[in-house]
Amino acid sequence: MGDTPGASEPSLDEQIAAYQREFQDLDPQVEKIVSALGRLNRRMNVAYGRQTANLGLSNAEWEVLKALVLAGAPYQLGPGELAKRLGLTPAAMTHRIDRMVGDGLVTRERDETNRVRVIIELTDEGRQKWLDAMQLATVFEEDLLQDLSAAERAVLGEVLTRLLRRVEHAQPDAGGRLSDLD
């Protein structure tokens, strides 16, 4: 796969050369890895966003569906727990849930054992949208990794997991949106 830049984006090599011109202490190998990961992440997010949009979902709604599925059957969480898992403010979570209730993707009910507590639950329609999105993502991801052997996929998975653990250890509070980045 070549180093094909976006319409107005320089190639990785051009970017690194410009960085080195301005900052001589740059390690070009490190910068190439980090820049490639950043670009890959952006492009994957766009691709996933297009897929979810074709299903009538936003990326934000997809994240809620995913969190409920990850919670396991019966696919329920409180709005506060959802907000925490997604790195959102309670107000932002309420707005998102309002839309999703209106679209029939989740329900919002009072907990019968604790009337103060609210429970957000995945509906059958919401679960089906999640499954449809997963099917599209699986096809995209297999295509993305088609040029890698099983051994290369295993090594890449291990290396990326080690990098992720390092960042998570150094920045444990950076799982969601930070107020200074909103």
SS element count, helices: 7
What integer is the average pLDDT? 89
Helix content: 55-70%
Rg over alpha carbons = 20 Å
Element string (H = helix, E = strand): HHHEHHEEHH
Which structural class should the secondary elements be placed in? mainly alpha
Q: How many E strands?
A: 3
Strand content: 5-15%
User: Any low-confidence stretches, pLDDT <50, length ≥5?
Assistant: 178-182
- Looking at the structure, what is the overall shape? elongated
- Biggest sheet: strand arrangement: 1-3-2
Describe this structure in words.
With 182 residues, the chain is mainly alpha-helical. It is 63% helix and 9% strand. The chain is built from seven helices and three strands; from the N terminus they run αααβααββαα. The chain has a three-stranded antiparallel sheet. A hairpin with a 2-residue loop joins strand 2 and strand 3. Helix 1 crosses helix 2, helix 2 crosses helix 6 and helix 4 crosses helix 5. The longest helix has 27 residues. The two termini are 34 Å apart.
List keywords for this structure.
182 residues; disordered C terminus; three-stranded antiparallel β-sheet; 7 helices; 63% helix; mainly alpha
Task: Offer a quick outline of the entry.
By secondary structure, the protein is mainly α. The chain is 63% helix and 9% strand.
